[in-house]
Amino acid sequence: MLPYGRQSISEQDIENVVRVLRSDFLTSGPEVEKFEVEFAEMVGARHAVAVCNATAALHLAMRVLGVGRGDRVITSPNTFLASANAAIYVGATPDFSDIDGESYNLSADLLEENWLPDTKAVVAVDYAGLPCNMPEIARVARSRGAYVIEDACHGTGGGFIAGEREWKLGGHPWADITTFSFHPVKTMTTGEGGVLVTDNEEWAKQARLLRSHGITRDSADFVGFTDAGDQTNDDLPSGLNEIGPWCYEMQELGYNYRITDLQCALGRSQLARLPEFIQRRRQIVARYNEAFSDLNWLTPPPRPELSQELVSWHLYTVLIDFGKIGKTRSEVMQELRSLGVGSQVLYIPVHLQPYYRTTYGYGVGKCPVAEGFYLKALSLPLFPEMTAGDVEHVIESVCGLG
Question: Which overall architecture, per CATH, does domain 271-399 show?
Fold first, then answer.
């Protein structure tokens, strides 16, 4: 059975994890710091903060940007739940603006048309690895005083062309913070894990504080127990403010969002393999596009005119006219499965989930383009270890549907 996605773990990956197992650090240690430096260099950002998963990265992005109660956060309905859920975690109102029918990403035109004055942030999701129109989204948001968070969880290592030059996701000027995912089916993996990148030193510093319970061990940042708040501290022991190697201060209410050295050892090894992962994904996508181009009941993914060779493809999502071939989506998926080809539907429009309908009153018709996309979408196998034979088997199986 060929799944729609799968991790690629080499013997070198395993050796790097074993090396850490034999070291003095298993949780957060030197591997985390090295991974952050290397990842920031790869995307072209000044700072990277690695955390336990990408949902945590989105949550911390909201926190450090000061998003909270009374604020609105707009994102795409064509995404995983976390892109919107993170707004709820900080007390903001999650909202949705429709996608365009070409890229399946947040439409800058509709975003501008439907803008509400209490919007504090926009989460632009790079669906399948295809970049959003970040310059236009940033223009709409920043001209109205809102922040831009790019959810690039599908696009690690990818980029786009704007202003006659190439930009890496996470390293361009049109997002304040960019988040990435290292879930096993993504472009590279740490088992579970995520990272946020930014050029803003203060945001990065606060994110590091918040990922570990709001605790700092750097004595240069201590505020001092007797200097905190309005207490007279007359009843405190005289040595409480003594600074020793054991000292730490909790300065904010943070979380246990730490990532481990074990995970970052795998991440560093995978990062070295990222170019080969991306190259193989692009080869598979090119072969699929060629094979499916003449099917009148199937629409391949978009092909950006200028940035095709820069896309880091996470998903290969096609649109199928199920009525034209006389089969339901469930029947198509079952037929493919009987041939050893897995498939997946990504995603159910977030605004139609029961929680969002009940809590915020969202419903059918709010984002008609995303709703129409969902009714036809099906993701086919795409991962680096697919052989040429695997790819041809998928093609033959799909073409046989009609």
Answer: Alpha-Beta Complex (3.90)
